[in-house]
User: What shape does this take?
Amino acid sequence: MKKISDERLEKMLTNYCEADSQQTFTFDPERKREKIIPFVRFRKQLIAAASLVLVSVLSLIIYFSFGNINNTPLTVAPSQHKLITPSSTEGGGDDPDQQDGADQNGSKSILQRIRDFFFPEASEESGASSERGGSSAAVSPTEQGNGSAGRSPSRRNPSTIPSATQPSDQSLDPPPKATEAGASTPITEPTTEPDTPPYVPPTEPIDPPWNDPEPTDPPDDEDPWSILPSEGGVMTGAPVEVYVRFDSSLMAGVTGVYCKVYSYDNLIGSSDLYDRSHQAEILDTSSQYTEVLYETPDGLIFRPGFYTFVFYDQNGNELAQWQDYCG
Amino acid sequence: MTDFEHYVAEYSPQLTRFCMKLCGNIHDAEDLFQDTWAREFDRIDQYRPSYSFESWLFAICANLFKNSKKLKYNSSKAVFATQEEKERFIRSIPAEEKDVDAYLDLHTAMMELPKKHRLVLVLYYFRSFTQQEIADMLDIPEGTVKSRLNTAKKLLKRRLYDEEDQR
Assistant: This one.
C-alpha cells in the first residue's frame, strides 16, 4: 500500500499546471460548435424523440381507453359485430363497452383494468348494470332475446294495435332512446336501429274515399274512384263519351252546347250552366242535323247504371235529352 | 482591430485551457469558452479599464460554470473525448516525470471532483489566483474557498491512494 503525500500531490499539481500553461491549443470563438460524441451531439434530439414517443404512447392509451368508455370504439371486432346484429338472438344485448367488461377480459382497456382493480364495487355495479341492460332490454333496440321480447313484436302485430278510443300502455311507451343504458351502442351502426318505428295509433278514422264530398278533388295518395267488388262496381271512373245529333233548327244563335248529367234524377255533374268542363263539342253542323260529342269529366261516372244527359245552349235553353246505360 | 477582438486574441488560449480543466472534455469546454465570450461581448460596456480584464473574464467564466445546471458543461463522463486529446495531455507531461499513469490518474481524479471543488482547485493552481481573489470572483467567503480547496485535495489524495492501492 502506497499513500501519496501532500508534497507529492503539490508537485504533481504544479507540474500539471506548468505543462498545461505551455499548451497552445485554443478554440476559435467564431467557429460553429461541432460536437463529436454522439450522445452529446444528439442529446437534445434524443430527449425530444423520447418525449415524443412517450407522449404518443400515452395518447394512444388514453385514446383507446376513453374511447371505450365513451362507447366510441375505434375498431369493432368481428365477434362484437356479430353480437350487435339484429339477427342475433342472444339476449342481453350489451353495448360494446359492457361486452368488454363482461365477456372479453382480454380486450379490457388499461383504464378499465385499473378501475376494476381499485374500484371492484364500481365494476360490480357496472356488471350489474350490464345485467340490467339485459333484463330491461325494452329500451335497447339491439336486444330481442329476453325482457322485452314479448313487447317489441306486439307493436308490429296489427291485430294488437290499439284503437284510438282504447289507448294502451304498451302503445304509449316512449320509443327507445339512443342515450339510455341499453342502447349505448354506436349510433352509426345501422344494425342497431329498431326494426320498425313505434306505432302511433290514429286519432281520427280515415274516411273511405267514396264518401268524399268533393269527387272532383280527390286526395293525391289514394284512388277514391276504385269500386269495391262487393258493391258490384267494376268501373274505374273512366270518361264516357256521349254522341248526340239533333235538329239544326235548334242551333240558331247557339254558340255553345253544355250538358248536365243526372243519375236517377240526381244531378251529379256541375250545376253551373257555363261550366266548361261540361261543354260539348260541336262536331258537325249541317242544314238538317247537328252532331255533338260530349265527354264526361274524368271520374264523374264511376258506377254502372242509367244516366241522363241533358244538353242545353249557352242561354240555358234545353236542346235535347239522352238516356243511356253506362257500365 | 477593436478592443474586444484584441481581448479575444490575447486571452483565448488561457481561457481555452481554463475551460478544458473545468469541463474535462473538449466539447463542453468549447461551449463554455464560447458562452464566456458571448457574455463578455454583451457586457463589454460594463467593463472598467481600472479593473483587471483577466480577472473579469475568468470571473465570468467561473460563474457561468458554477451557476450552470448539473449536466451543462459536464455532459460527458469520458476523461478524454478523443484519443488525440489524451495524447496531447500525455505530451504535456514534463519529461522528467516517468510516471505518466500518475498524471493520468490525477487528471481523472480532477474530473471526478464536484464542480465547486474543481472550480476552486483550478482557479487556485491553474490560474494562480489568490484565495481572496477567488472569494471575490465567486462571491463567497474566503474561508469557504480554503475549505473547498482542502476538501478538493483530500478527495484527490483519496482517489490517488485508492488507485495506487489497486495497482
Remarks:
- The helical segments of chain B are 3-23, 26-42, 53-67, 83-92, 100-111, 115-126, 131-138, 142-166.
- Residues 90 and 100 of chain B are 7 Å apart (CA to CA).
